[in-house]
Amino acid sequence: MLEFPGGVYAITPETADTESLLTRVEAALVGGVAAVQYRDKSADVARRHEQASELVALCRRYKVPLIVNDDLRLADLCDADGVHLGRDDGSLREARIILGKGKFIGASCYQSLDLAHAAQAAGADYVAFGSFFASPTKPAAGRADTALLRAATQAIRIPIVAIGGITLANAPLLLDAGADCLAVLSALFDAPDVGAAAHALNQLFEVESEQ
User: Does 138 qualify as catalytic in the annotation?
Assistant: First the structure.
């Protein structure tokens, strides 16, 4: 069975500038991110297909999985390494049937341990909780706390992703509480040096493993 890699989980910013997107994602890959999620909510189908396909090829060169956010059809079409589904984005079981056993399926569980139990039972490869801090990407998102993470580490067998407003300063709180992965967008791609930001975040995991 595949195991989703622990570490920094880079969430891509939405942009029409594909060249800039690829440059920044490659800098994150050089900086040591463990996985990349392509997230684009636009209605531009052609752009989304082009960007996802380019990112799949780029990430393969670095042997890092590329996950497509919310769009099972796009994940299948561009041969991505998996899909991440929210509560209203379709069935995890259907995603497994379409993508097969060799691909990752992640599930947003928000602030709910019950949703995580259900996702695990449905065959998810990882679950994501959040938002843990105020997030510029989703300012209205409900807030999760570290108690939820601690409870999840006791109840859930698959990797646990923390998301939402994560920075270099607050990330250690989530790692101490048991997060296996930190999903980061702004703290990574809004940084003046994406590669350096990725490296600094990645270092937190090395410190945690030494404790």
Answer: yes
